[in-house]
Amino acid sequence: MAKTFVVTLRKSLIGCTQDQKDTVRCIGLKKVRQSVEVKDTPANRGQIMKVQHLVDVAVKG
To answer: pTM above the 0.90 mark?
Structure first.
């Protein structure tokens, strides 16, 4: 089983750049306190690092 991350949006996107808003949307998050599971790939790690101040990340699996 591949390792996955549970990503939770913790802060609002108000005041963020459009690039950060697009990254959060691509991860699959739409609302504050929403959580999604994403696979552990280099692309997803880069997206998470880009918005690390807005999200919480937990490792699963």
So the answer is: yes
